[in-house]
Amino acid sequence: MGSVPFHRGLLDVGILRDTILPSLMLHAPLAVVAYGIGRATDSVEAKDWLWPIAPMINGWWSAVGRKMYRRGLTFNQAFGMLSRPERLLLTGVTLWGGRLFYRIASRSIKRRRQGKEYDDPRYDAEKLQAGYWNKALFTVFLPEALIQTVISLPVTAPFHHQGAVLTGYHPAVQALAVGLFCAGFTLEVLADVQLEQFKSSARDSTSVCKEGVWSLVRHPNYLGDALVHLSFPVLLYGSDMLAPVELLGSITNYLFLRYVGGDKQIERHQARRYSQSSREKFADFQRHRETHNSFWPKADVVTNRWLWTIVGAGAAGALMEQAFHHLF
To answer: What are the residue boundaries of the structural domains of the chain, listed by start?
Structure first.
């Protein structure tokens, strides 16, 4: 398939019609349902439960469900039509979404069992706004549905259109994509486990977590998430499947994590909570902000063994996938 100018491929009305609109028609109703549940339970966190689920549903519907519905195929028939890169995409979004959903659900359930707040305390301040729930559908839930739609493009758009591609087939780039995913996913899992271990210790009352992968950056879980989402367009690029519009997915995810619902939001909440509950922990939080970057590691972490643990996990994952591909 011949290539076309980047700007034309990115803005082509047909591509937008075949990619963004079908996804938005799925994400928007799910957001309305989440809003209804959230309003009924006074829980803004309802949108967070949806965040990992919607891309998984969208990915599987785009790749398999549509074929079953429109062509009358069985699940095995529809799934069997997928190429190796397409199966890798589905595996990736399923692992990513499954881990994040488990993390959000387990954290919420644990908080409620302990008799703490029903909703995530990060949202307490914004819920104090007059008439918050009357406008939240249009200011919070539906905007996030649109953001989800764009972020999901790399795992949905390839199944909706035969868009213009940017490159030829490159197995080495495919291996790089798998490595990026495995590194990012490992970083997320380790961040979850190590943070929970730290919170169960006495040190949590006077300091912030700076152990394990938390010694690399202040938010290793968000860095891992960004690497996972970056791996999707890289995989498409190496598989001769990338259309320019799909680049918007990882870019939007990165911008959201950095400037909307990620480290900026959580650190505002942490600063407010620590300053009110523990001067010692707030002081440690401030020192940690001065010595560690929020998202991207500083150059001096090159000697940190956890950096090489993550790099090694990525390399091992790429090698295992290549071995599985050639053996089976």
So the answer is: 13-161, 167-242+262-328
Summarize the confidence of residues 158-174 as an average pLDDT: 73
pLDDT tens for 231-246 read 999 999 999 898 888 9
In sequence order, the 6+-apart residues with CB closer than 8 A to the CB of 291 are: none
Residue 239: strand pairing partners: 169
Cβ atoms within 10 Å, residue 46: 22
Mean pLDDT of the chain: 89
Residue 73: enclosing H or E segment and its boundaries? none
End-to-end CA distance of the chain: 28
* Strands of the chain, DSSP E: none
Closest CA to 173 of 124, 107, 242, 112: 242
Residue 44 CB-density burial (10 A; 0-12 exposed, 13-18 middle, 19+ buried): buried
Helix %, strand %, coil % for the chain, to 5?
80, 0, 20
Give me the residues paired with residue 169 across strands.
239
Tokens of 317: 């994952």
28-47 pLDDT tens trace = 999 999 999 999 999 999 99
Main-chain phi, psi angles of 239, to 5 degrees = -110, 10
Distance (Å, rounded) from C-alpha 282 to C-alpha 75? 53
The Cα–Cα gap between 97 and 51 comes to 8
User: In whole angstroms, what is the distance from residue 174 CA to residue 181 CA?
Assistant: 11
Reduced to 3 states (helix: H, G, I; strand: E, B; else coil), residue 169 is strand
pTM listed for this prediction: 0.90
What phi and psi, each to the nearest 5 degrees, are found at residue 300? -75, -10
